[in-house]
Design goal:
457 residues; mainly alpha; two-stranded parallel ribbon; 19 helices; single chain
Length: 457
């Protein structure tokens, strides 16, 4: 059933119909579309635009359609133009004339705007739940690895010793911000466009605030043109998902590196790895690699929607139909990546001795050697130069700072005493960094308590 055929004298070209139709993808809106229609009809009856009998007939019909789609006894007709026309046609077929009054006081423009907002609101909740699960997994790893030492890196060069807890805490902060962004989007988008009509509202005495309350919106939108042409919230969500995927991709890159033969910091569970068709020894980090790869796909959605929207005049234009397949794919991709990455992370094993040995090499305690000199009255810039000479001497001899004799230390600076070895031990280097945000187990233990409280909401 076409919702607009009266003005036309010729049938729509078959290719035009196929090109124009959106039923193949917007049918996933059926729950949101029916929920919106139920609220709309309830409001129309309250305002006296529909009789109570008509209201009861329409609501019963809509609830029956929803139940039948859910239980599989009603299939969405692929020849319908979109999910809105399908639901309306099914309703009229079931209840007759009363069904033709469903669309009173609204347009497909405000209807699709509502459906998309209801859908996005649901998906924000689903994304938030997945991020929360990931954060809980990261927090468990933090709590279990407060004293699992590893090298911290800058420029992919060993820099200073840290712990797995501290390293994973950085990712906890990233995903915590992701969760905050979702909350912000949810608050900003939570206005109801239904009742805006095609672009200029309607002459019917609608109670838009009542409709908004029925659908759990904070209020109705304030401008009918913006109501049907706003896609900012989709762009914001795409941006937020792109940032989530960037965080997952960075994390994946580290897992891939740590899983390599050169690092051997971690071992991935067999359930989250694959093998090679020709090399029997291989155990590949395919989940991490796919997450890293799919990041570009989500980035593409953001760029595509921005490009689609950049030249559209007010109000609604058919270009905006392109938002649906893009956002559906980006949401599905991001949700899938979050779920799989969390499973992979929850089953990962840390090779603690290898990580500790790696932290002890590479002069990660050089800064602490400089701090030792500063604490004994040497200006930091002079201390920096002295430790640079120590490192150069160690490199020439193929030893670490821990292996250098006291005589060798004193040949470069007489300030060094026997306590230098305690000062540059791996444990001391980490445990003395107790300032807020530092890697010391005592500091991270307190931060973990804060993280736990943040996850209680």
């Amino acid at each position: 059933m076409k919702l607009w055929g009266g003005r036309f004298t010729k049938e729509e070209n078959a290719l035009v119909n196929q090109f124009n139709a959106s039923i193949s993808f917007d049918q996933r809106f059926y729950r949101q579309d029916i929920r919106g229609s139920i609220a709309h009809v309830t409001m129309l009856a309250k305002q006296g635009i529909l009789t109570d009998t008509e209201k009861q007939q329409i609501l019963a019909g809509l609830e029956g359609i929803l139940a039948d789609i859910e239980n599989g006894t009603l299939d969405v007709d692929p020849s319908a133009e979109d999910i809105h026309s399908f639901v309306e046609a099914a309703l009229i077929a079931r209840i007759g004339e009363a069904g033709k009054k469903l669309h009173t006081g609204r347009s497909r423009n405000d209807q699709v705007a509502l459906d998309m907002k209801l859908y996005i609101r649901d998906e924000i909740m689903a994304l938030d739940a997945l991020i929360k699960e990931l954060l809980q997994t990261i927090l468990h790893i933090i709590e279990e690895n407060l004293e699992t030492f590893m090298p911290g890196f800058t420029h992919l060069q060993k820099a200073q010793p840290v712990t797995v807890a501290h390293h994973f805490g950085a990712y906890f902060e990233m995903f915590l911000r992701d969760r905050s962004r979702l909350s912000d989007i949810r608050k900003r988008m939570n206005t109801c466009p239904l009742g805006a009509g095609a672009l200029a509202g309607t002459t019917y005495p609608l109670d838009r605030e009542y409709t908004a309350s029925l659908l759990d919106f904070d209020c109705a939108t304030r401008n009918s043109m913006d109501s049907v042409s706003d896609r900012d919230y989709l762009i914001e969500l795409c941006s937020a998902m792109a940032t989530m995927m960037m965080h997952l991709s960075r994390f994946s890159e580290e897992i891939i590196l740590w899983n390599s033969n050169e690092y051997q910091f971690v071992e991935l569970d067999d359930a989250y790895s694959t093998g090679s068709s020709i090399m029997p020894q291989k155990k590949n980090p395919d989940i991490a690699e796919l997450v890293r790869g799919k990041t570009g796909r989500v980035y593409g959605t953001l760029v595509s929607i921005l490009t689609t929207m950049k030249g559209i005049p007010l109000a609604y234009n058919k270009d905006m139909q392109e938002d649906k397949e893009l956002i559906f794919d980006a949401v599905d991709t991001t949700k899938g990546c979050l779920a799989l990455f969390t499973g992979m992370l929850a089953t990962i094993k840390f090779n603690q001795q290898i990580m500790k040995k790696s932290a002890m090499n590479g002069f990660t305690n050089a800064t602490d050697a400089a701090d030792y000199l500063v604490n004994h009255g040497v200006p930091f810039r002079d201390a920096h130069g002295i430790v640079g000479q120590l490192v150069l001497s160690c490199l020439e001899k193929g030893i670490s700072l821990d292996e250098m004799s006291l005589e060798e230390y004193r040949s470069i600076s007489p300030v060094f005493e026997e306590d230098i070895y305690e000062a540059i031990s791996l444990e001391t280097c980490v445990e003395k960094r107790t300032t807020l945000g530092g890697p010391a187990p005592s500091a991270m233990r307190e931060i973990a308590k804060e993280y736990q409280k943040l996850l209680e909401v």
